Amino acid sequence: MLFRSRDAPSRQGGLTSLRPAGVKHHLSPYFNELKLADLVSAYLGNPFISTWQVGTNYGDKSKTHAMDITLPLDADGTYDFVVEWGDGSSAHILSHDQADVKHTYARAGEYTVQLNGIVNGFAFGAHENDDDDDGHPCSEQIIDISQWGCVRLANKGSQFNRCTYLKVSAKDVLDLTGVTCMNDMFYGASSFNGDVSQWNTGSVTTMRGMFQGASSFNGDVSQWNTGSVTTMRGMFEDASSFNGDVSQWNTGSVTHMESMFCGASSFNGDMSQWNTGSVVDMGGMFFNASSFNGDVSQWNTGSVVSMHSMFRNASSFNGDVSQWNTGSVTSMHSMFQGASSFNGDVSQWNTSSVTVTDMESMFEDALLRMPSP
Predict the structure, then answer these.
(1) Does some domain include residue 13?
(2) Each residue of 17-49: pLDDT tens digit?
(3) Same domain membership, residue 324 and residue 232
């Protein structure tokens, strides 16, 4: 223990007012000898611990990373923490644009960086220098998170956008307090396969593109609370390793599922009990999902407007869709194109709202069993 009970640090005013309780004008004899980071640890608990690469060509051998790190802090966040840079230097951070959020190293290598204190607004994609092409300038330099600790994420999505080499080894659970938006959270994080099984997603309303391009991800999401989520568009798009259990997900509030499993070539999960009554767009939902042949026979499609390319190139699919309500659908363009196993009965479908042009290539290269005359 760093402090006896009578010497516990004051919690008023954040880290700037740390002092032993009851001491008004001087510090206890051993207090001055403690490092600021140790005081923070005693004050607030576990640090956020991550590993970064600087001046190396880790992963992409053709690229040498910069000799500096800029912490990805959102402009609207709240900060009062100490950063230990892993080379013996540290800084006290109070603002996202403080000069000390950028640190330059003298030598190339991997460094363990610890943040200890109030870190409410961590996010790569939400950084003010983010752009659509490259993301945060340091997104490819973070390679591991070994402890979530005190970190809280910004609520603008893209929290780990394009963190190409990130592998999360943390055993503790990320606190998602205040997070409602997970759009593009691990977009392009092609090495990520961390444990997200205990995440509390009960307040999350949007998961658009959350694992898009996260080609290594196959984590356990079976217990996620998705009851408040309204959009899952592109959620597992090009997540080519994903075949997780989503059978118990509450999808009753979801309106957009377009491209949800597009390119998720390993996925063949059970979604037979999903509530799809609110969904209006299923366009491209299983496009290039070459393993999928799940039971969707009981899906409520009465509100769906778009089914274009829904099973395009889903080469294993031959599910029963004979009872689907397609009365509201206006687009079926390329719906089963390249679905080389499909030979289902669609003779009772109501296509009165679909124009001829919106049926182009609908069954191209599919084995459709045409209705008898």
Answers:
(1) no
(2) 443 333 333 333 333 444 454 454 445 568 999
(3) yes
- Cα 100 to Cα 102: distance, rounded to the nearest angstrom: 5
CB-facing half-sphere around the CA of 85: CA atoms within 13 A: 22
Counting the structural domains of the chain, the total is 2
| 239 plus 318 within the same structural domain | yes
Q: 172 with 193, same domain?
A: no
Shared-domain flag, residues 227 and 334: yes
∠ CA(107), CA(110), CA(113), 5° rounding? 105
230: burial class by Cβ within 10 Å (0-12, 13-18, 19+)? middle
Q: What is the pLDDT of residues 4-21, one digit of tens each?
A: 333 333 334 455 444 333
Q: What are the structure tokens assigned to 134, written together?
A: 């490259």
The alpha carbon torsion through 358, 233, 265, 163 (nearest 10 deg) reads 140
Any domain includes 34: no
pTM (predicted TM-score):
0.86
Residue type, 14: G
Q: Check whether residue 141 and residue 279 sit in a common domain.
A: no
220 close to 243: Cβ distance less than 8 angstroms = no
